Amino acid sequence: MDLVSKVALVTGAGRGIGRAIALALGNAGALVAVNDLDAVRARDTGALLNEAGHENSVFPADISLFSQVTPMIESVASRWGRLDILVNNAGVEPQGSILELSLDDWQRTLDVNLTGPFLTSRAVAPVMRQQGGGVIVNIGSIAGRAAGLRNRSAYVAAKMGLVGFTRECAREFAEYNIRVNAVCPGVIITEMTTHLRQNEAMMAKWLDDIPQHRLGEPDDVAGVVVFLCSDAARYVTGQAINVDGGKVMS
Fold first, then answer.
1. Contact of 162 with 146, CB cutoff 8 Å
2. Active-site residue numbers?
């Protein structure tokens, strides 16, 4: 799974799964463009890549805004002369029942988790087409497939939409030699799940529902992403792959 000299852009790479993906791509030889809304977190990830000896650049931007996405894609392509890999990882997950969720939280969730991947994919496709191909990986969730998530209606709706968008993107971009897949994690040990993991009853239920009887690590997700970005997955496109210890088997 050699990615030497490939250029990869990872959104939401300032922490958690996104940071693990950025580091894993760097370890595989890729030149990594680190994006995050939080410039400090993005620079922290860049510093970790530097410490590991991996060439990188930091691009703070809000991927839900067209006005910021297009310049970012252009800057990455200009920096290295190409852009081979796009990982749409950035996401938000507000909590609240349908009756309590504010319209602002609903809209922000759709903007970041669904419109963001649309904007970045649309912006990167012409670059990949011109250079002869590329790979897009969208980070979804098992909550957007067979497993729902209580009080996360906006998140579930966006992630379900992302799986559908992944398939249509793969269908349209295949003629340009651009592969598009989704990775759908289960419960992963990140900052986003910290408060939930403090609930002993919830932890017990999670572990009982997962055949491997453990929660996932960010590296569990990153490994699958690296595979999908490599030539080892050259005949894989339009798929949504669960990374959840066997919780959802479909």
1. no
2. 155
| Contact present, 1 and 230 (Cβ < 8 Å) | yes
Cα–Cα distance measured from residue 135 to residue 156, given in angstroms and rounded to the nearest whole number: 25
State the Rg of the chain over Cα: 17
Say whether 107 sits in a helix, a strand or coil.
helix
The closest alpha carbon to 75, from 12, 15, 33, 115, belongs to 33
Q: Which residue has the tokens 């699958």?
A: 224
Encode pLDDT of 152-193 as tens digits. 899 999 999 999 999 999 999 999 999 999 999 998 988 777
Nearest-angstrom CA–CA distance, 90 and 130: 26
pTM higher than 0.90, yes or no? Answer: yes
Closest CA to 243 of 9, 225, 230: 225
Structure tokens, 228: 């999908």
pLDDT in tens, 85-115: 999 999 999 989 999 999 999 999 999 999 9
Alpha-helix runs per DSSP H in the chain: 16-27, 39-51, 66-80, 103-110, 116-131, 153-173, 194-197, 200-209, 218-229
Least trusted range by pLDDT, from 17-21, 86-90, 204-208, 235-239: 204-208
Domains and CATH numbers, the chain: 7-190+218-241 (3.40.50.720)
Contact, 47 vs 79, CB < 8 A?
no
